[in-house]
Amino acid sequence: MSPSCSLRFPFSRNASIGIPNKRILPFPSPDEDVIIRSQSYFYENGGKRPIQVRHYLLLESWKSILKLLFIGLIMIIFSQCSCGRKLLLKYPKVFSGGYFDHESPSEEVIENTTVCMYLYGKGWSDKKDIQFNQPPNKSILGKIDIVNPAYGFTCLAVVLSAIIILTEPSKLPKKGGVYTPAVAFFHTSMVEALQKNGVPLEILSVNDL
């Protein structure tokens, strides 16, 4: 597909989202396969141009980058043999630099944990430009702040999904089967429900390219 979404060079600075002092590192997100399946469905059933996605981590400094690479290298090496895997499972706090532990996190830690995601995209203001493979002429920047993502947000998303399935059955896919969340809730009020319950989606900028 042209134009393609090429992978950014690791450790480069990214001024597109307004934080030029941070460096990016490609992130093998498990969400990528879900997104691909969603976009494939929209293309096959609605003729919509598939969205191409890349995931990155934003890191503060070279110190953070080296720490992350070191932990990743240790885990890769130790996971290759049974004795190494046993050590990783027995002492997760040591080998993860304190990120993982057998002990449950305190309520204070849980409530103060926040995940910030920036969504930067390029596209077209006119469908005709898409059909003729013109270069993108618009950019958009969004931001989502999720508080307590592992516990609070997961529970909230599950409950809201159940409510919408019960209250908006006419807006769900007509045929049975297994659907990705994007496909299942595309025509529903899921995004609005999340926003009303403390999951803000901000549009920071829309610019011409």
UniProtKB/TrEMBL annotation:
InterPro entries the record matches: Saccharopine_DH-like_oxidrdct (IPR051276)
GO terms under biological process: glycolipid biosynthetic process
GO cellular component: lipid droplet; mitochondrion; plasma membrane
UniProt-recorded name of the protein: Saccharopine dehydrogenase-like C-terminal domain-containing protein
Species this protein is from: Photinus pyralis
